[in-house]
Structures are given as structure tokens and as C-alpha cells.
Amino acid sequence: MFKQYVNNEQFNLQINRFINDYYQEDDRAQADLEKMIPNLNDTHSWYEAWLHFAKKREDSKDYDLASVYYQAAEFYLATTDPNKEKMYQKYRETFYKGFHDFDYESYKIPYEDSYLPAVKLLTPGATKTLLVFGGYDSYMEEMLKMMKFMKGIDYNIIVFDGPGQGTALKKGLKFIHNWEKPISTVIDYFKLDRVSLVGASWGGYLAMRAAAFEKRIDKVVAFNIFYCGLDALKMGMPEETYQSIMQLVDRNEVDQVNSLFEQMMTHNIDLHWKITKGMENTGESTPFDLIKNFEKHTMHGIGAFINQDVLLLAGEDDQYVPISRLAQIQQELINAASITTKVFTKETGGEQHCQAGHRELAFNEMNKFL
């Protein structure tokens, strides 16, 4: 279940996200959290607290928990902080020491002048292939861990970091909106005829975009729905502030937009993270340029090109995606072979972004759909 640990809305989401798999029948994480929570006051104390317990869990060979804690420790670090790369490498190192859910094969798929890292999870006798990827800030290892909820389905599962994600980003590939390009590369590399897709978070948009232009895709899962990148920026911002900013953007008031964001970011942890993470992902150097980049990430105008079977998952209280987008997406999918929709509420559980705290509910729907 989703738990309110602290007063910061985004801190709560991230804690629930990272600890999701340890709510039931595992009191290790809860014991650690009881000691950690009182110290989570700002991004510095966040880093110190998670790192402390990451080291403790690694020393006791609890590699699964250590990995989660290292990922959390890395989350708010600036790209210029040398500890960021250290945390990322410790996250991956401990993850693979503790990952035993599947037999798997690792790949480096050539892409432009770099590569896309991928892991193929093997299901004996499987006849189909599922491609799985994250979004704005998730790493393929985080998605790999979630695949335990899909174990036994008739799919070999290929999880990968695309441009702007995880190791692909570290190797120089920046975030892009036209996700059909990496998807087609992965399909070609494995010589596949048909694939299904699961895109998580911002990946909900990326999956829909890929389905619009890559017709070897037969089923597409938006986990969650994600209509456009600017929604994530707008959520949590007063409507009049957002409208004023976009008017300045439309008038090309570069300096004014950048100055405004610098002021707002000083007092807003969530906004500061969104902008700095976005610039890391895309390679843009200012908030103005980042907004112009985000404008490309939209389902506007592509819904009619999606003719596959579609599963739309939505959380009623998603803090990054307004629930009002669901009806709009449904209306724009005029040529979809089928549309299956599941809205999660506080009553059902799973009302948060990507069903944080109740992730199994989302995967139950995916398994039925696939």
C-alpha cells in the first residue's frame, strides 16, 4: 500500500517506489525506514541516509536491498557530483549480485556510435517477445526487478535502456521523442517479426509513439498513461504560473523564462529535480531549451496512427499525469484494434504514479491483457 512517510509529496512517491517490493513478508526495509525517515529533511540528508543503509545492507550481503538504497541515494545528486556515478555503479553492481529471478542473457545493441544495453529474460517454451523500458528517470535494472510479476507468461522479455536512460545515457545517447527508432533497432537486432511493448512512466508516451510508426508491434501497454512531457512540469505548478511561462516561451523570451525557473527551483525540490534531470537526459543547457525539447514529447497528432491493441493504466492521484488525459487519449485512439482501460483509485489501491505501493495491481492487468 502507498504510505505517507514525510511531508514532501515527491519524497513519499520515491520512497514508495523504491520500497514497493518490500512491503509484504519483509521487515528489513521497514526497520531501516523507521530509522531513516526522521532524517529525510532535504536532498543532502536524503543522500546521506540512503547511502548509510546501502553500505550496511551491502556489508550484510543483502544485495537486493543495498541496490535499492544505492538507487535512492543517487536520485537527487547533481550531475556534477562525483558521487552520482559512484552510486549508479554501486546500484548496478549490487543489483546483479542479488538478481536471481530469471535465467538471462546480456547484450550491447549497436546504436548510432554507441549501444543500448539490454537483458533478455528467458522463459522456457515462450513463443512471443515483450520489450520493456522505463521513462524519464528509471533504469533497466529497476524494470528487470518488476518482471517477477510477469514470470511464467508466454513471452521472452527484453528489458533495455533506450537513449537518455541508464547506461545508454552514460554512454552518450540523449533522450529523444521518436522512440520508434530505438524500438526498431532492438527488433532488427533480435530478428523479430512481432513484439509487444510495456513502457513505464514517461515510457507510456514513448510506447505509444513507437506503436504509431513501427508496425511490427502488436500490443502496447502504457504503464501509466502519459500524454505529453509538459504535463509532468505543469503538475504541482499553479495554473496561472504555467500559463504565464508558456506565453513567455511562445514569445521567445529566453532570458525571462530561464530567470523565472532559476528563482522557482531555489525553493522547490521537485521542480529543481525535474529540470536538472531533464537537462542531464536531453543535453539541453537551460530550462527554456528543455521546455522546447519537451514540446516534442506529445501524443498530439499521432493517436490515429496507432492501430494495435492498447492497454491504458491510470492512477487517479498521479502526481505527474492528470487523470483528465485518459479520456483525451481514448478519444484520439480512433483506429486502435482494441482499447482496454483500468483506472486505479484510493479504494482499489494503485492510485499513484505507476501504481507505486501497489505495483502488483498494474501487472495483474498487464498479464490479463497480454
TrEMBL record:
- Residues annotated as domain AB hydrolase-1: 154-334
What the entry lists under Gene3D superfamilies is as follows: alpha/beta hydrolase
The reply on keyword Hydrolase is yes
> What are the protein's UniProt keywords?
Hydrolase
Q: Which is a Gene Ontology cellular component entry for this protein?
A: membrane
Q: Which GO terms describe its molecular function?
A: hydrolase activity
Q: Name one Pfam family in it.
A: Abhydrolase_1
Q: Which PANTHER family match?
A: HYDROLASE, PUTATIVE (AFU_ORTHOLOGUE AFUA_2G14860)-RELATED, MONOACYLGLYCEROL LIPASE
Question: What is the protein name stated in its UniProt record?
Answer: Alpha/beta hydrolase
The organism that produces this protein has a lineage beginning with: Bacteria, Bacillati, Bacillota, Bacilli, Bacillales
